[in-house]
Amino acid sequence: MLARMSSLEITPESDDEWEQVIRRHLAAGERAHVTFERPSMTPAEMADSIGVSRATIQRRILAGEIRSERRGNRHRIPLHEVERFRHAYVREMATDLAADF
Amino acid sequence: MQPTSEHRVFVDANVLASPVPRTILYLSQPLSDFQLVFSPWVEREAERHQKAGHIPVSTLRQRFDWEFVPDADDFDGLVDTDPKDQPVLASAVEAKARYLVTANVRDFGEKDLAEHRMVAVHPGLFLAHHVSAQSYREVLEAVGEKRGREPRDPLSIHQQEISVHLPALFDAYRDLFGHATPDTSHGPPMLSFRGTRCVECYRVLREDLQRDPGLCQRCGADTARR
User: Fold this and answer.
1) ipTM entry
2) CB B23: neighbour CB atoms within 10 A?
3) pTM of the entire structure?
4) Which site among A65, A86, A90, A95 would you substitute to test the B interface, given the most B Cβ atoms closer than 10 Å to its Cβ?
5) Angstrom distance (rounded) from CA B90 to CA B95
6) Taking CB atoms and an 8 Å limit, are B30 and A53 in contact across chains?
7) How many angstroms separate the CA atoms of B57 and B180, rounded?
């Protein structure tokens, strides 16, 4: 079994140095394990970010209005879906709020 | 991605009862870094002052899941706030809000605000420092699309409604939609800010270093550059 020596997060914005860092570790006799994941939020994180309750996010997931991915028995919402819903929610509120505006 | 809400903002009844400030505040919330809250007492006061035929605040709150916080039951410690507004300030303090957004800043006492590290601020000035140009544009476009009467284009709404109800927000983004002329038939609020913290970053204010009322040295310089 290998002891965990260090970790490295790579995003689409990362510069190219990550490849050299990995090669340096491999040259030093270490191994690298690579995991790919899509950036996402939990329902609670999404609720906090948009300014609604977690129950609202859960309800909209169940109604199919927010697309989520299941990881075990938990929902994760991809960031692009969080952003889509954020802007849709502004338009939705505007429908009622603009009536008295 | 928007940042997680770090600024909790208590909304006074006079703002909730007024369609233009309420609309711009609540449509900006999902696009910004603040979390709006109010209490049952404030909701009742707002509904008492709403115009007949307008959608009740309680209906909007339930429909859009606006955050409700409990009313404070103890406001004996307040010394220089107008008694009719003490329930508002006490509930804002209990909700751990940093800002109290109100059309009547003068009603909230300097000593009470300093004691509780609370900032009383007009909604126009608050929005001017917490809503980006991109978000403001999106909000006015959404209002224009859904509004049932003229004006519906963002420039006209900006000139005819925002310049009257939220003058500091108008000034901050004056020519965002093209050359804009404000409606000057209404004067700006007598007082837009009261407190000891920066309206933008919540740092402690030093009176000798303020370039603009309500802004710390750094935020004042940033605003001047923008």
Assistant:
1) 0.88
2) 26
3) 0.87
4) A90
5) 9
6) no
7) 32
